[in-house]
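Pilot study result, target chain (462 residues):
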Amino acid sequence: MGLSQRRNSDQREVPLIRPVLKPFETFVHAESSGGILLLGATLVAMVWANSPWADSYARLWSTPVSLVVGSHALTETLLEWINDGLMAMFFFVIGLEIKREVLVGELASWRRAALPLAAALGGTVVPASLYLLVNGAGPGAPGWGIPMATDIAFALGVLALLGPRVPLSLKVFLTALAIGDDLMAVLVIALFYTSTISWLNVGIGALFLLLLVAANFVGIRHLLVYSVLGIGGLWLAFLLSGVHATIAGVLAAMTIPARTRLSGSEFVARGQALLKRFEEVTSAERPPLANTERHHVTQRLEMEVKDVETPLQRLEHALHPWVTVVVMPLFALANAGITLDANGWAHLTHPVALGIMVGLFIGKPVGILLASWGASQAGLVSLPEGVTWRQLAGTGVLAGIGFTMSLFIAGLAFPPGPLQLSAKVGILCASTSAGIVGWAWLRSGSGGAAVGKAARQGGKGW
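Predicted structure:
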């Protein structure tokens, strides 16, 4: 039987649901999908919290949920499970992105990392300083970490809406910048937003972390091992220790193997041999379900594919859609429901809200620009190819979209009540303003070859 006959005899039917799923898959992998879903979840939360069914919104997230193993039970509200549990997955993916960027990405060398890291430093220090300038040592002082981080999904989503108006290098810069200040935000959470620490559980967590490192060192690649040690050990120990459980997600990500078992040439040789064998054992007389040899070949080929890909890549690729479609929208739905009552103006003008708005909307772009300009004047960095200072300024405004990370830190800084409500009002107002102004800024000034040339040559063009 010829090859074409084999192909014709081995045709598979297209599942009826495929045309339905295809647009959804395309949307999930689009750059703007995360921002669109976050925006939708936020609007639903706002409408729900201010509707006649507002009580059901509050009751839902305060529902106690227990994890029971034998005589031991761990009980938290649904809101706490989302913020402590699902957000650990979010931070785990952030950890994977940080590790990838450090190993082979924009943070892999000083020359490539200098500009986004300098910008991230300025974009965290200046907003926090402005917040403290507004709040001083008052009751809102613990919220100084709220305006530090950038919501990468929202910011990249807005940037994606501009399409070819902005160069690819600007998107890469914003990604590296967001990862840099997310890293700083993680350190801030670990060092400053922890409750009373149980050193016994910290020690248990450290033991599981060592086991994860050892598993990587000896060459264990099965993700089940890392899941059991990371979730059943490290995350649970940190949850009980007082150190926020999401930190466990970042630490666990750093232990995921980033090496391959097969080189590219070895994979090509083995793959070609297996595909040749697959062709030999495929026949019209033996359907796939009855063809044992064909099944063995496909299993071998699947193993070879896994060995040529790093576990870090597989995990990041597998988890990213879940974080985009489920974790972050669910977090927004549970945390963004602000009740707009007669005291709304009072919350908007509260020092906490004002400090956040000044920090995110003004402090972010000013800090990013000052740090980038200073590093450029010192000869340490240069702008990415095709990026102007005007575009960098617009990107700095977009970095003021704090949202997810800012809401998360607000929940750590303040207990439920007026201060947390004022913080949420400030975050939503600042993030909305940053998104609209940043989009308009970049859209109106994304051309200008002369400006771009002047900016690249002297760092002075706008």
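One observation from the pilot: The chain has 20 helices and two strands. A full batch analysis is planned for the follow-on phase.
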